[in-house]
Amino acid sequence: MTGISYAFRDSVTMLRRDIKRTLRYPALTIGTIAVPALFLLLFAGVFGQTLRAGLGQALTGAGYIDYLAPGILVMTACASAEATAVGTAADMTDGIIARFRTMAIARASVLTGKVTGSTIRTLISACLILGVSFLLGFRPVATFWAWLGVLGLFTLFALAVTWLTVGMGLAAKTPEGANSASLLIVILPFVSSAFVPAASMPAGVRWFAANQPFTPVITTIRGLLTGTPIGHSPILAVAWCVLIAAVGFSWALFRYERNPLR
To answer: What is the reported pLDDT for 255?
Structure first.
């Protein structure tokens, strides 16, 4: 077998381990679905009519659930990535990562298996959130190719933030520390165009919301699903995702190699 074949085999083995662990301890996974679903219900069912009336034409004629659902999808990926950070830190604390580092396996396979497993869970969670959105009245007008574009961008985004939070988990000394560090990933959607247009925010906040990494991702997904204008957002979204993924992967691999055995 070639080196690539060995690395693929080891990554698949680590993916199976990650899936088995998910099935054995489902509470964290359920939490990553429950939190975005709660925000979806809260903003659509409680605040939806008020926000829709207050924003008026800023929503370009769409119902508020149509505006909200894409932002909640991005939040779902963030919540799943946060759980991955906590799980990675727990592996470090339990010593299993140190054990893997002494074994004759591809050095990146432990990380790629974990990231792949997390991405699969994120995609499943996104499907469930979409199901809840449909029940609340979400009616996308996307074509087959638009749905394919949404799937591709969402998967790329999930991979990017997951690699970043794996690095956070490896750098943290405790699972609690990893949870605190990765909380920033969950907070960022609140200061974006996820819940209201950036143009409706005060000047300073508006600039940050319009230029932070998550806004072009949300804008692109929303445009593909609802037919609203997306401009240059797809290019910015892909560029941000690639940059975040590259930084996250490099950081995670560095921390994996340099962390002391414990």
So the answer is: 84
